[in-house]
Design goal:
This protein has 104 residues and is mainly α. 82% of the residues lie in helices and 0% in strands.
């Protein structure tokens, strides 16, 4: 290992993100049922954004595994940024969630 401390962090983040993929199908089914059950379409844009975010969740997690390519090429900052790219998705999802709660 070139940088063991960074490698351990990357392994930790990848394990956590990978474990969330186990619960993803269940969460997707629940969100689709809630999306289909909605009686009021007051904010269709937020509903659409939330549906897109739920559908693209695995892409963010799987793209975070690209961090190992940067790690092995010696670009530690890019490796860290790529491993934490999932947090951008999480932030966007939380913003949509907070906006939908405050608007309804």
């Amino acid at each position: 290992m070139k940088n063991p401390k960074l490698a351990h962090r990357l392994i930790f983040f990848n394990i956590i993100y990978g474990l969330t993929l186990v619960a993803y199908p269940y969460a997707l089914m629940i969100s689709l049922f809630f999306y289909g059950y909605r009686e009021s379409g007051d904010h269709p844009l937020l509903d659409t954004i939330a549906a897109i975010l739920m559908a693209t969740y695995p892409m963010g997690v799987l793209f975070s595994f690209v961090c190992w390519a940067f790690y092995h090429s010696g670009k530690s900052k890019w490796a860290t940024a790529t491993a934490n790219l999932f947090l951008v998705w999480l932030g966007a999802f939380l913003i949509v969630l907070l906006l939908s709660d405050s608007l309804f």
